[in-house]
Amino acid sequence: MTPTDTQRAAMDRLGIHAAAGDWCWIDKIPQPPADVLQAAGNPRLRPARLPLLGMIGAVLGAPFMPLLMLLSLLSDAEEAVKRALGTKEEKERWRAKKEDDRRRDATIAQQGLDKVFDGNWHGEAGQFLLRWYGHSTHHQRLLLATEEGIVLAAPPRRVSVGREKHLQVVARIPASEATLVDPFSGEFETRMLLMRFRDGSWLRVDTEELRSDLHTYLLRQPLPESN
After folding, report:
1. Which residues contact 168 (CB under 8 A, 6 or more apart)?
2. Mind listing the pLDDT tens digit for each residue in 64-75?
């Protein structure tokens, strides 16, 4: 997976040469302790609500939801039939995938990666998380990996369409301060990436694409040397 032509055009407008990039989002930010919230200036902890145009689209699309749910159920039923009638080799592959999914979910829970960050509000990741929606009220970010570090771009305010047209750089994190990490080094196919800061704290983002351009880019990078 590589950045789309639209994303590339947006990068050109921003004047950024990125080795890889993809749209991403974060999970719900938990409520910080009162003293942490006050010290940070009571920052915004949620994205802005869907704009009027998006709300109208959601209302107009609501009548089609039952049909979409029915199609999804039919698709699941078709997949179940295929599994039941599949060859021995196909059944083995399905069982192996199911086992991989179980191991992935267990590993995520064991390492605490089912949370949006490591939980330390005083760490660099926690402090950056507090500023996340202060940078932009949009619910997504275009995350770019560059030679200098990590760049995050987004519309300054939430939009329902044309997100690339409204892009602005909202944060630059030098490579000396944070690195982008696939916590599973490609072992599992996920949308998950970590922004790991120099103090060891981390912030989880989920990419729009499964096994995104960013995941592929990170797999090509040399492993860090052991001390």
Report:
1. 14, 136, 153, 154, 155, 156
2. 557 666 666 666
Identity at 209, one-letter amino acid code: E
User: What CA–CA distances, in Å, run from 214 to 60, 120, 130?
Assistant: 35, 26, 24
Distant-in-sequence, close-in-space partners of 143: CB < 8 Å, separation ≥ 6: 21, 22, 23, 24, 150, 151, 152, 180, 193, 205, 207, 214
Helices (H), the chain: 5-14, 34-39, 52-61, 65-85, 88-110, 124-130, 132-135, 213-220
Residues 24 and 204: beta-carbon distance below 8 Å = no
- 5 neighbors 163 (Cβ within 8 angstroms): no
The answer to whether 36 and 121 have CB atoms below 8 angstroms apart is: yes
- List phi, psi (to 5°) of 101: -60, -40
CA pair distance 111, 8, nearest whole angstrom? 35
The pTM assigned to this predicted structure is: 0.77
* Bridge partners (DSSP) listed for residue 24: 141, 207
pLDDT digits (tens, 9 = 90+) for 164-188: 888 999 999 999 999 999 999 888 8
Listed residue (37, 3, 33) closest to 18, CA to CA: 3
Instruction: Please answer whether residues 142 and 166 qualify as being in contact, where contact means their C-beta atoms are separated by less than 8 angstroms.
Output: no
